[in-house]
Specification:
Length: about 325
């Protein structure tokens, strides 16, 4: 597949534990394999949690579930229980299976209640491995069924090690994509989104696709993960177009999207719509209000839709 069309986040995704960038204590835990259920968590996205799930599950028959978009009670009955109860024999013995629960913090309350019984019932044949950014959203009785491993650096040595590994990895990718840089600019570029490797790679790919051949500090503060949404807020698109984009692209990551609107969107306005800088205070106040409302509604995507509609009204007043 061409480097132009393949997502850098997939092209450069580590395929083995040896190439994963994570604290050594984490890699030491993962090197033991699936001896127990694992819950990988960090306060930041893009730290390698989902990649780790794929590496760990590779030797096993596995079922992938995105809990943010699929985490309902009926899924347990219709897919997970069926998967766990189907016997897979290899060499005359029952083979261990793996259920991957990505974005586990986005599951419903009923899902959390149901998954506990399933984990216990099939403990002899299935391992459950999960990832999340907001571990506090996962009930304690569910957490207690996992070995919970933090991907956040726990001291300055771990943080320095991870940062240095990022510098080596991104430096090689920039060289491969013919984007020149100085060590000082590379350090600034990585610090801007550290430790979110996914955001860094998305920016590198955006630079590459735009034909940029030199790191430019003016573009450091744009989170390209949400660029379509930023444009939507600035242009005042048709209401139904808002609905289609948000429900298809952002409904499974409401918290991260609202966070991006409160921070990175401000930088996007500064670079791409400097005539609207005076509206930034109202943007921040509005997003803050909808972040507070997010936990009070049944369907969080409605909160995001309402927030975008309000931002469009603020930013596109005639």
């Amino acid at each position: 597949m061409s480097i132009v069309t393949e997502l850098f986040t997939e092209k450069f995704r580590p395929k083995a534990l040896e190439t994963l960038i994570a604290p050594m204590r984490v890699k030491s835990e993962l090197s033991r394999g699936l001896v127990q259920n694992l819950l990988l968590y960090s306060n930041s996205p893009g730290t390698g949690k989902t990649t780790s799930l794929f590496i760990l599950s590779a030797p096993y028959t596995s079922l992938y579930i995105n809990a943010s978009s699929e985490g309902r009670i009926d899924l347990i009955r219709e897919r997970i229980t069926k998967f766990c109860s189907t016997i897979s024999l290899e060499g005359g013995s029952e083979k261990l299976k793996c259920v991957i629960l990505d974005e586990f913090d986005g599951a419903s309350t009923d899902f959390y209640l149901g998954i506990r019984a399933v984990m216990e019932k099939f403990a002899h044949v299935t391992r459950f491995i999960a990832s999340c950014n907001y571990i506090q959203k996962i009930p304690e009785p569910v957490q207690s069924r996992f070995n919970c491993i933090s991907y956040d650096p726990i001291n300055s040595d771990e943080e320095t090690y991870i940062f240095d590994e990022y510098v080596k990895r991104i430096g090689k990718i920039l060289t491969a994509t013919t984007i020149s840089y100085t060590p000082e600019l590379l350090n600034k570029f990585i610090k801007n989104d550290f430790p979110d490797m996914r955001a860094i790679l998305n920016k590198v790919q955006s630079f590459y696709l735009q034909g940029i051949h030199q790191l430019d500090e003016r573009n450091f503060n744009i989170n390209f993960d949400f660029e379509d949404l930023y444009k939507l807020c600035l242009t005042g698109n048709e209401p139904y177009e808002n609905y289609k984009l948000i429900t298809s692209e952002y409904a499974s990551k409401i918290d991260d999207t609202l966070m991006a609107l409160s921070y990175d969107f401000v930088e996007y306005i500064k670079v791409n719509a400097p005539n609207k800088i005076d509206l930034i205070p109202m943007v921040i106040i509005t997003v803050c209000e909808y972040q507070a409302q997010r936990l009070q509604v049944i369907d969080a995507s409605i909160t995001l839709l309402a927030c975008v509609y309000k931002l469009q009204q603020i930013l596109n007043k005639k």
